[in-house]
Amino acid sequence: MDRYSVSRTKRSLFYLMMAFLIVGFIIAECILPSERSQSVSDNNITYEGSFTWEKSDGEREAIEVPGRYDVKPGDTMVITTVLPDDFNASVMAIRASLQTVRFYVDGSLRAEYDTKDTRPFGKDSASRYVFCNMSEDDAGKELRIELTSHASNYSGVVNTVYCGEKSDIWTNIFHNSSRETIIAFFIFFAAVVSVMFSIALSIVYKTHFDMEYVGWCMLLGAIWMLGESKLRQMLVPNASVLAAMCFVVILISPIAVSIYIDSIQGGRYTRVYTCIEALAAVNFIVCTALQLFGVCDYIETLPAGQGMLAVCCAVVITTFIIDIIKHRTLGYRPEMVAMIIALVLVLIEAASVYFVVTMSGFFIGTGLIVILFVNIIVTIKRISEIEYKRQKEESDRLRNQTERVSLQMMKTLAATIEAKDDYMRGHSYRVAEYSALIAKQLGWSEHEVENLRNAAYLHDIGKIGVPDTILNKPTRLTDEEFAAIKSHTVMGADILKDITLLDHLVDIARNHHERYDGKGYPDGLVGEEIPLSARIVCVADSYDAMKSRRIYRNALPDEEIRRELLDNCGTQFDPQISRMFVDMLDNGMVVIDEDNPAAQGYRDNAAIESVADKFISEVMKTMSSQEKADSVDYLTGLYMRSRGQQVIAALMQDNDGCLAFIDMDNLKKVNDVHGHKAGDRALKLIGNLLAKETENETFAACRLGGDEFLIFMPYSDRASVESVIKRIFEGFESAREADCEIKEAALSAGLCMTTKGAMFESDYTKADKALYYVKQNCKGSYFFYEQLLADNKENTNLSADLRNVAKLLKESGSYTGALDLNYREFARIYEFMNNIGDRHKHNCYLVMVTMNTLPEQLADIEEIEKALDCMEQSIRSKIRKVDVCTRYSSMQYLIILFEPQENQIPNVMERIFMHYYELCDREDFKPQYEYIKMTEAK
């Protein structure tokens, strides 16, 4: 919530009112007559009688009072006067200037001022007002005043003699001297507050403020002013101590001034000021020692202190001039101007002691107030800058902390995602370490190496946005899938673009797949257009990829890796980096600690790592549970196609065994005759049979889609494999006989024996060929691919195709599109018709119909099957008898249109889709089509 603020109009009116009051007060005091009593004026309390100086040789001389006369230091000056007959004053008073004073009335000692028993040191009494009690009875008597001073400056000084009421005399003194005293008290308290406030600020902000030194200078000035005040005997019980402090201030002020000026000048002249401080300290010690031992009073050694102060001022002015010439005053220009003014005023005050008897300290006070005012402004500005800097640092700290947390989350997430795949686990860590080794060899600093290491760890972070089905696909990628893989560089750069904590982060994520010859992605950069950091990571990434096992191959031998690195110098890799890396391999320099704990947390603050890991752990639990749910077919309880192929491919890398491709025959007929619930029971049955066999962790099975299944059995002998297959077939046969609705269903299987480390895609294709042979020749049984090779049956497809087509044509009857063909049979017919088209110049078109699910919809399998049935009926009713169609996948149909006019194809498809929407009342699916001329497909 924002703090309430008084309106600007109200504030302006208030300020105007206060200004009017202040200005009015000042004007009234200046123009209106004084209301003070005339009885306390100087004329009313000043003694008007004449004085005679009685010299030591007996000579008498009439003198003017006040005045200064030639008296040797230590001699007593005696002045006398005869009080008038009408004298009725209660007191007489005189100001002693470092003098001992005695009052005698008719030869009788009436009052004495001598501090020999109370002053701490020195020969003279401190200056003060000395009062002598009188009465009207003293009229006509002789008044004798004796003045004694050991100071040459004050010996022979006679100040004004006052008579009257004591209160009136003090009133007059206060009237004449109170202004300077009040200023001195103000400066004193301002100095104390400044010092305390500066110390408090130093504690809070952990830095020193120049105002502290200003405060000490002000404190010394305030002491000087209070010591010189005519009211000092009323301020403290022992005025002698306060008077002595005036001289001490003169002696040590060069130290305070030097420290302050050195501070505001940033230490540029520290040596010079240190010398001044040392000399001033020595001068103070010597003068104090002379005072303590009674050799010389402070007043006598004062010129040395004043000379030291003058030297200090001269040095300060000189440094100011040097900085002005060299344009170095920008950082302290206000303080410099204020200090120059104050120094001039201090010098005036110090020099005035030789020309007047007493000093008020007015000049020092004025100078100190100027310095205080300027330093308040400068300190406020400094605090504002510190606060801004502190807030900026805090903002940067929070941003950096947020980025570190984000960075750690990304690292942990990257490591966790890698952990799902045994073949990628630790890849990012190893690439980061290899990159760091290369950077060290290139002569990078430790800081640069560490930055590169952390940035390289996240080089593949963009793969978070690539589906696992593509990342972990054991078979060859399609063009679309490879494009999705390539997009991880752009996605990674986009994820990391706002993290400024590390250098090279975005460059590495985006460009580590660029090639030196310009044929890389995503930007096609050439040579040194590719950032150096990305070129380093490119070599490290490729090396680890070749060095590691993958789901589709084993790790490459060291010699082959070395050959690849050298063969691709200047094409894929930076030639300098790749050759240097090969040299590092040859010299055994590419060694990392793969068990290093840094691979798990990776060199970040422990608290941040803990928070990040906890967060990622929760995220990954959710992702893992979701992934588990998404990777299992809910109907059969088996893995779905993508996950199942990954698991089976991984088992094939570590075990000999057999890959079995199982197909359920006549599932469509069961669905058509008895409904989908009967078909689902058949699918569940085979799912249960396969799940029972895969209780052993080295077995794996999955549903490929529709009525097709895949199972891996870790047996290297055919007898064990056949026993498992027979057990599955017999179990299915037994359950089928007990359920009349699924009696039409049967199993066919193609098998391929595999060896440890075999390529999944190759053996998968072989098992599929064996299944195809079974479907063409002996449905309801199984066959080994190895038997096909032994019996030389693999290349008998043409006659089988012809027989199949002939059989289909013969049995078609009222044929309206070969919707009963499975994909393999359709493929044969496609090839057959294509050959006819080539020979007789017929134009045939292949059309693919795809049932797309709307993004916001989530349909179950029954809804999917219903929609597909509607599409099947629509196609059956709208295509010609010469056209052929089949279900290509779980969501697609293929149609061969024989010699249509190309411009009529959209009309045909529109009729099919319109009929589909009439049959299907749901809008969960959006059918789309594409077509191509069959001769162009070659």
Integer-rounded radius of gyration: 54 Å
Task: Report the end-to-end length measured between terminal Cα atoms.
Answer: 72 Å
Strand order of the largest sheet: 2-1-4-9-6-7
Average pLDDT number: 82
Largest sheet: 6 strands, antiparallel
Please tally the helical runs, counting DSSP H or I stretches of 4 or more residues.
30
Percentage of residues in helical conformation: 40-55%
Task: Estimate what percentage of residues fall within beta strands.
Answer: 5-15%
The helix-and-strand class reads alpha+beta
Q: Unreliable runs, pLDDT <50, ≥5 residues?
A: 597-609, 794-799, 808-818
Number of strands: 21
Structure description:
By secondary structure, the chain is α+β, with helices and mostly antiparallel strands. The chain is 55% helix and 13% strand. The strands form five sheets. Strands 2-1-4-9-6-7 form a six-stranded antiparallel sheet, with no helix packed on it. Helix 11 (427-441) runs antiparallel to helix 12 and helix 27 packs across helix 28 (823-840).
SSE diagram, text form:
Elements (H helix, E strand, L loop, with lengths): L7 H24 L10 H4 L5 E4 L5 E4 L3 E2 L7 E7 L8 E6 L3 E6 L2 E6 L14 E6 L8 E7 L8 E2 L2 E4 L1 H40 L4 H19 L3 H4 L3 H26 L5 H23 L5 H28 L7 H19 L10 H58 L7 H15 L4 H12 L10 H4 L7 H8 L1 H9 L8 H7 L20 H16 L10 H10 L7 H12 L19 H25 L8 E2 H14 L2 E9 L1 H8 L1 H18 L6 E6 L2 E6 L4 H21 L7 E9 L5 H18 L4 E3 H7 L5 H15 L11 H18 L3 E10 L7 H18 L5 E6 L2 E7 L6 H15 L5 E9 L5
Parallel strand pairs: 12-14, 16-17
Antiparallel strand pairs: 1-2, 1-4, 3-10, 4-9, 5-8, 5-11, 6-7, 6-9, 13-15, 13-16, 14-15, 18-20, 18-21, 19-20
Helix pairs in contact: 3-4, 3-10, 4-6, 4-10, 6-7, 6-8, 7-8, 8-9, 9-10, 10-20, 11-12, 11-17, 12-16, 15-16, 16-17, 22-23, 23-24, 27-28, 29-30
